[in-house]
Amino acid sequence: MTIWNELAGLDFTLNTVDAAGVPTRSLQAGSGDEAVVFLHGTSGHLEAFARNIAAHAPYYRCHAIDMLGHGYTGKPDYAYEIPRYVEHLVNYLDAVGLDRAHLVGESLGGWVAAHLASELPGRVLSLQLLAAGGTVANPAVMERIKSSTTKAVQSDDIELTRARLHLLMHDPADATEELVEARHRIYHQPDFVANIHNLLSLQEMDIRQRNLLRPDRMAKIQAPTLVVWGHDNPFGDVPEAKKMAEDIRGAQLQLYPECGHWPQHEQAALYNPLSLAFLAKSSAQAKTPA
Fold it and tell me: Where is each AB hydrolase-1 domain found (predicted)?
């Protein structure tokens, strides 16, 4: 199954949005009164949600974007720390006219979404943290992300890109050939190569420490929150997910067996109905008078 087969029969647009001067690749589909914005992980791109857009589009306006410095979005020359990502996301929301949205963030995307939810609660209808990063600083994990990504970017050998994607998945078959080729093409854009040190800046200990989602920040999150995690996540063990859910008032935790770092992709058949039920419940709560 390829990315485009996943989207077959779905009306969508793929275009570039000017987010306060940063050209931002955006896939938009669906209809409804509310919007869901999907945010990928480190060195990722909007195709991370190819198995989710069609399921959500009948009920919500869906936006999947390439985040700051990623994919085919602009790559300004500065370190991509969390406040920079949040600023870019807010600028995107403003550019497309979204005062509030449901945020679905995988890995780095969850880190950014949680930070935004803690800073600007009025912009976030609900929050989904899928194998989200940002609550710990594990040197071994940070080095694994940094070295595997750098090798894949600095070499034309597509096998290194394939290995980078296999690192994310419990089952290597989930790293489809089309997904490998799409990421390989992204990795070898001249501006991507030139800015890889900026993209990987959060893997430097001093930078990561000042950007962490600490318990006091997590306690500020008011939006209904769903934490989704795989038992075989190579970048974080289950206790990390449990602590994340404990630190956010009322958060729901869902664990999937035989699942790595992309639960929305690896376990799409289970995740999509879970997400839709959570979104519907969150929407109903938002409309209920206090």
Answer: 35-266
Q: Which domain holds residue 171?
A: 3-83+95-109+120-227+254-265
Report the alpha-carbon distance of residue 37 to residue 39 in Å, rounded: 7
Which tokens in the block code for residue 288? 């209920």
Tokens matching residue 23: 């050209």
pTM for this model (two decimals): 0.97
Query: Considering its fold, how many domains does the chain have in total?
Result: 1
Return d(Cα 44, Cα 169) in angstroms, integer.
14
**Backbone dihedral region for residue 73 (phi beyond 0: left; psi -120 to 50: alpha; all else: beta):** beta
pLDDT at 1: 52
For position 52, which CATH number holds? Answer: 3.40.50.1820
72 in a structural domain:
yes
Query: Any residues with CB less than 8 A from the CB of 114 and at least 6 apart, and which?
Result: 105, 127, 129, 132, 134, 213, 217, 218, 221
